[in-house]
Amino acid sequence: MSEELRELYQEQILDHSKRPRNKRAIDGASSAEGYNPLCGDRATVYVALEGDVVKDVAFVGQGCSISTASASMMTEALKGKTRAEVDALFERFHALVTAPPDSAAQNAAPELGKLAVFAGVCEFPARVKCASLAWHTLKAALSGDQATVKTE
Amino acid sequence: MSSSTQDAALDAKRLREDFPLLKQQSHGKPLVYLDSAATAQKPQAVIDAERTVYETCYANVHRGVYEISAKADAAYSAARAKLQKFIGAKESREIVFVRGTTEAINLVAYSFGRKNIGKGDEILISGLEHHSNIVPWQLVCEDKGASLKVAPVNDAGEIRLDEMERLFSPRTKIVAVAHVSNALGTINPVKQIARMAHERGVPLLVDGAQAAPHMKLDVQDLDCDFYALSGHKMYGPSGIGVLYGKAALLQTMPPFMGGGDMILSVSFEKTTFNEIPYKFEAGTPNIAGTIALGATVDYLNAIGMDKVAAHEEQLLKYATDALLRVPGLRLIGTAQHKAGVLSFVMEDVHPHDVGTVLDFEGIAVRTGHHCAQPVMERYGVPATTRASLGLYNTTEDIDALVKGLRKAKEMFA
Q1: Closest to B253 in 3D by CA, of B103, B119, B114
Q2: pLDDT per residue as tens digits for the range B281-294
Q3: CA distance B413 to chain A (A)
Q4: B350 touches chain A (CB under 8 A)
Q5: Domain boundary among B242, B270, B302
Q6: Which of A119, B65, B67, B201 has its CA 20 to 30 A from that of B157?
Q7: Per CATH, is A3-142 categorized as 3.90.1010.10?
């Protein structure tokens, strides 16, 4: 496998795509639907808050390895975070996958913890939408936006 | 150009030398281009033809009194005659130059539709259509209060003609079907559909975008009323295409766009429209693109469309056999009559990931819904990987594809 391809398909990404975590619906939680019309990826993200804190977050849907792994790892990263922390993480993640390689956002990657494995996505413009689908959908779930989120 | 002798089969290895882009590398590997159904690469002869127009005979058409302008005009008209012969039209005035298939279908939808379709009327299409042969008709339906009827497709990807026949009614005003499905490769029996439509006095539009690059066309034999094609899919320039329409029908249709060239005289009280095809060609056309499309026809004729078809049929068979040997691969679209399109899904590997892994092997394929979401829905898949063949593809390209697919399988299984 080439170096760049390995950079995209990190072990953790492959692992989460094959065995996604928190892939389930949450009864009574806020939810939103995301759709990437270009590749047909769909994700419904559920988020249950306790006060200002994310008590539980999960997703269902179908998609490519990048979008499935992104949704799975997102759910792991968000439990116990406040809304402000979720917003900050969203911004950092978005910057990570859309930034030019080797830029400041890339250097700030350690703050993202495990999510830093998505750094390779920025080399693949066609895959940025896959990586960010779950995150955009989460934002809609948190803001109570009922319309389907599209990453187009 | 390097076409082989008249009797021999097409020599794809020699022909690919005519296509400069195919000499490119991708990710450090020789490019394997298997996305001709999206758009085909261009031979040097076509690239040269377009450049030559700008270098030697570029001026506006239909109006100049000077020598260069007359040259441009002659070359433009010659291109129309070449396209007429290429598709077997009776007269050159039945060839309307447009931007591409999408514009051709929109032209008919708006012009024919505006005049002939009313409240409660019906438009009949098939479940295999590209979005460009669905959406223009939906717009007409919305505007006029008409409804869209869709002939269903069987599991192999063939139109159910019995069901189609049942969908005709006295309110059916036009039928529109693809000659070849872009998503599945099915070659539809358009001659039979034309008969079915004409028995009821209904005209037929054929979307020929995927057929024109792959087979010898004869619109008079098909007896379709309209035929639409795109230059860029048949190794010609992008931004130029053809709407063929039977002269008698085109004459009854109102203009699609207004402007220069499409009029005989204009006053603020009354404008008299030009004859066909000019009535439908408002504004300065894609002059160089049109002339280069004529050169594309010359290139294809020198090879012979029968040979192109035979080569692709052979390669499709080779590719189908090879792909079916890849474990966990399911072909979507297994019609008896198929052109060079292989749409498939793989167990455990999403098409998008297949596409990325293949990209790193230098292999260009399309992944997604191929602008045919209803087709994807019919087969219960969100997307497929599509490898599509052109005259320059070889068995080596297929071998590389299969190798790449095995690699993807290894990575994700």
Answers
A1: B114
A2: 999 999 999 999 99
A3: 8
A4: yes
A5: B302
A6: B201
A7: yes
